[in-house]
Design goal:
The structure is a single chain. The protein is an all-beta fold. Strands 2, 4, 5, 6, 9, 10 and 11 form a 7-stranded mixed sheet that branches. It has a 4-stranded antiparallel sheet with strand order 1-3-8-7, with no helix packed on it. A hairpin with a 6-residue loop joins strand 4 and strand 5. It contains no helices and 11 strands. Helix content is 0%, strand content 54%.
Length: 124
């Protein structure tokens, strides 16, 4: 079994920065992909960024240049550094883990394991 736990959410001033973390533990031998998604009430969960264990990563255009995804491979913890955080970025941020090096990193159903989410809110 694989466990995914997010941490580090909270309130951040518009224009400010916040870093959230995702710890992936358990039977992670074949887990090669970790992604971040976000969701606001009434909307579908949307992809933000993903990183493969080999180092390849992708970031959605809406956050390109502001958000950075990285990994501490020793701990298998994936970070999402969010800079110049805007009100439209507010939401519940979910981390998810998937098997293998296949594509479709931006699809929700690519990931069988999900965390409970951590809320990130932009304040005035």
């Amino acid at each position: 079994q694989v466990q995914v736990v997010e941490s580090g959410g909270g309130s951040v001033q518009a224009g400010g920065s916040l870093k959230v973390a995702c710890a992936v533990t358990g039977d992670t031998g074949n887990i090669k992909l970790v992604g971040w998604f976000r969701q606001t009430p009434g909307k579908e969960r949307e992809w933000v960024a993903s990183i493969y264990r080999e180092g390849r990563y992708y970031v959605d255009d809406s956050v390109e240049g502001r958000f950075t995804i990285s990994e501490d491979s020793n701990k298998y913890t994936v970070y999402l550094q969010m800079n110049n955080f805007q009100r439209d970025d507010t939401g519940m941020y979910y981390c998810a883990a998937g098997y293998g090096y296949g594509g479709s990193w931006y699809k929700v159903d690519r990931y069988p394991y999900w965390g409970q989410g951590t809320e990130v809110t932009a304040s005035a």
